[in-house]
Amino acid sequence: MPKTAVVALGGNVLTLEGQSGTYVEQELNALHMAETVCSLRDAGWNVVLVHGNGPQVGNLAIQQEQGEPLVPQQPLFCLGSMTQGQIGSILTLALRRVGGSRIPDVASLVTHVVVEADDPAMDRPTKPIGPFFDADQATLLANQRGWSVAEDAGRGYRRVVPSPEPTRIVEAGVIKTLVDSGVIVVAAGGGGVPVVRQDKGYTGVDAVIDKDYAAQQLATALKADALVLVTGVERVLLDFGTPQQRPVREMTAEEAERHLGDGQFPEGSMGPKVRAALRFIRNGGEAAVITTPRLVQASLDAEAKADADVGTRIVTSRTQVGATR
Ligand SMILES: Nc1ncnc2c1ncn2[C@@H]1O[C@H](COP(=O)(O)OP(=O)(O)O)[C@@H](O)[C@H]1O
Ligand SMILES: NC(=O)OP(=O)(O)O
């Protein structure tokens, strides 16, 4: 029975820092990610890809604003579904191009994720979307357009929107059926389209769910063997951004919890990744990995030698002596 990895891919991996988000940029960046997924397939893993959409959904929201009054704006949750189509298509094309006959079918699934209507996060915008601005531009845009803006992990200012906790993946059952039959599935993109339960069915709410938390929910629901959080840094760093910063090769759940409690990982960047990894382990998962596309394969190798070039592994119990550096 092949193992299953749920791989979360940051929106910032598709639109790199300094890029504006053209189609060609995203297409090229997706090819790198496709190489990683194809190597995982070659190593016998079933793969579910959960992509971010922060840069893309924010760009789309600006395009919507510019379109007024010629065409009506669509709600934010609906823009989330549009980015699932956009990025799902880019990833599918990249996988087919890189994988050719090596890979089976690829399916990108519009996915809805249930949130609670009374989640306090709905009144507290925290999720950065769209382009980066300097402080003056951000203040101007906030005044002109009624945006909430905030500083994003030392990289500049961005629009921020509510980001409630995902509680259930509506399409988890069909995703499992596809994965079990060997299909590479792109699902819960952008954290999923946020919906709340109604008497009959669901209705969308204006928010952007954190894709790392949605990926964890999905990984737990699928009883996946690994949760892989792909981002722009090879390893999680302790004392990030200080002269004392140092990489972590392996953290037990207890250590991850302690470092989170000590405020080592900022909300809106590394915090959700470490918390998602921790939740996966606490809900029965074996190992979670945080790294760049280049090191995914090696990082999933639990037997990797102590000096191997790997990312950060979050595990139930220590596998390597002296692995936390
Ligand atoms: N403790 C830390 N260790 C490593 N990177 C950190 C840490 N704290 C903040 N970061 C920053 O967080 C970024 C990852 O978060 P983000 O860019 O939001 O992720 P995503 O790839 O999902 O878009 C890293 O590239 C790094 O700049
Ligand atoms: N939805 C989401 O978490 O997107 P990013 O990973 O791009 O921030």
Automatic annotation (TrEMBL):
It comes from Streptomyces chiangmaiensis. GO terms for molecular function: kinase activity. CDD domains: AAK_CK. The lineage of its organism: Bacteria, Bacillati, Actinomycetota, Actinomycetes, Kitasatosporales. Residues 3-291 form the Aspartate/glutamate/uridylate kinase domain. NCBIfam families: PRK12352.1 (NF009007). Pfam families: AA_kinase. This is Carbamate kinase. InterPro entries: AceGlu_kinase-like_sf, Asp/Glu/Uridylate_kinase, Carb_kinase. The keyword Kinase applies. Belongs to the carbamate kinase family. Keywords: Kinase, Transferase.
